[in-house]
Amino acid sequence: MNSSTGSTSTGISVTLEKGLELLERMMLIRRFEERAAQLRAEGLIPGFLHPYIGQEASAVGICDVLSPQDVLTSTHRGHGHMIGRGADPARMYAELFARVGGYNQGKGGSLHMIDTELGFLGANGIVGGGIPIAGGAALQFKRTGSDAVAVSFFGDGASNEGSFHETMNMAALWKLPILFVCENNLYGEFTRQSEHMVLKDVADRAPAYGMPGVVVDGNDVIAVREVTKVAVERARNGDGPTLIETKTYRHRGHFEGDMAKYRPKEEVEEWMKRDPLLTFSTWLSTERDASKADLADVRSRVDTRLEVAIAWAKEQAHPLAEDALNHVYVESFNGEALR
Ligand SMILES: Cc1ncc(C[n+]2csc(CCOP(=O)(O)OP(=O)(O)O)c2C)c(N)n1
Ligand SMILES: [Mg+2]
Fold first, then answer.
1. Which residue's C-alpha comes closest to atom 22 of ligand 1?
2. Dihedral (C-alpha) 306, 309, 315, 318: value to the nearest 10 degrees?
3. What CA–CA distance (Å, rounded) separates 9 from 281?
4. What CATH number should be reported for the domain holding residue 324?
5. Cα separations in angstroms, 271 against 7, 190, 267, 314
6. From the alpha carbon of 155, which atom of ligand 1 is closest?
7. How many domains does the chain fold into?
8. DSSP code, position 332
9. Closest residue CA from atom 20 of ligand 1
10. 191-229 burial, b if ≥16 CB within 10 A, otherwise e?
């Protein structure tokens, strides 16, 4: 079994209406984070931010194919996955502002956001930490005969972790319904991929475990969507996992405040030309006759929604000191007290 390159996108199934919906979701991620970076600079956000800006097509292309019963695990760079899944930006801002209206009552911050009702099983500060969690969910789906699918997002750096290799092995062996989505942005923190692994394509690791590995242009939302459809169908049919490698690039530093001086200027410029929002807006104009007004409407809808979200989040209270130890441990399960 060899890894392969995913189909170049034709976009046949993407109408103007569908395309604008995908663009709006990507724009929501981008503008959410651009505003978050400003608000952090203003002192409203006490914790770390790892911007997903530049990688939006990967989250949106994958999440668009999923059904409500499916679940996801994420990373330290998780805002895009969470918004891609349909999370409420107001509750996300509240969490970043450390307010009780946030997803973790303001006690988790960017790295711990979770919404189990959405099937979003958490951002994760442990590199590679989400992979076995998704594997466990997939095992449960298989045991209970559910046709749900688990998706684990992680980076090129995480694919060097034991948790990646162990979960890949078991998932292939037990034909678990799981998608391993490696968002290869060419860097693990400040280290280039060529300095942390020999391979060029992380997808080449898949055949060694007996599953397909697919490389796709992670900045092309339609191409990502197409390879995801194939992998999800395979998983739902009981045929087992797929590793999808989305080749992409983060526009900003590893975290907000990192000036990213370790990246060659030409490399950054080259990838900026391949900005997924830019290229998809152009595609919508040329291939689907999107007007300037259509594109401007997307931007203004997103900005209005985010300003309402920010205003709401700012009004929420900070958690009380006496609540510091609440919500730390699971206190009941299936209605039964655990202590
Ligand atoms: C187990 C573990 N090791 C190291 C770190 C420190 N760390 C945080 S992010 C990161 C790089 C991750 O790179 P990659 O998986 O490519 O994700 P990206 O940041 O590029 O999205 C590292 C090493 C960590 N958080 N957890
Ligand atoms: Mg990386």
1. 189
2. -100
3. 15
4. 3.40.50.970
5. 21, 17, 6, 35
6. 15
7. 1
8. E
9. 188
10. eebeeebeeebbbbbbeebebbbbbbbbbbbbbbbbbbe
Q: State the alpha helices, DSSP H only, in the chain.
A: 16-41, 56-63, 79-84, 89-96, 130-144, 162-173, 206-209, 221-236, 265-273, 276-288, 292-315
Q: How far apart are CA 29 and CA 51, in angstroms?
A: 10
Mutate to test the pocket of ligand 1, among 58, 75, 79, 127 (most ligand atoms within 8 A of CB): 127
Report how far ligand 2's centroid is from the alpha carbon of 208 (Å).
Answer: 22
| Domain span at 223 | 4-337
Q: Report helix, strand or coil for 53.
A: coil
Backbone region of residue 91 per phi and psi (left: phi > 0; alpha: psi in -120 to 50; beta: other values): alpha
Closest to 64 in 3D by CA, of 295, 232, 280, 287: 232
What backbone phi and psi angles, to 5 degrees, belong to 242? -140, 145
Per-chain residues with Cβ under 5 A from ion ligand 2: 155-157, 185, 188
Q: What is the pLDDT along the chain (339 residues), one digit of tens a residue?
A: 556 666 556 677 899 999 999 999 999 999 999 999 999 999 999 999 999 999 999 999 999 999 999 999 999 999 999 999 999 999 999 999 999 999 999 999 999 999 999 999 999 999 999 999 999 999 999 999 999 999 999 999 999 999 999 999 999 999 999 999 999 999 999 999 999 999 999 999 999 999 999 999 999 999 999 999 999 999 999 999 999 999 999 999 999 999 999 999 999 999 999 999 999 999 999 999 999 999 999 999 999 999 999 999 999 999 999 999 888 888 888 888 886
Residues with CB under 6 A from ligand 1: 75-77, 125-127, 154-158, 185, 187-189, 254
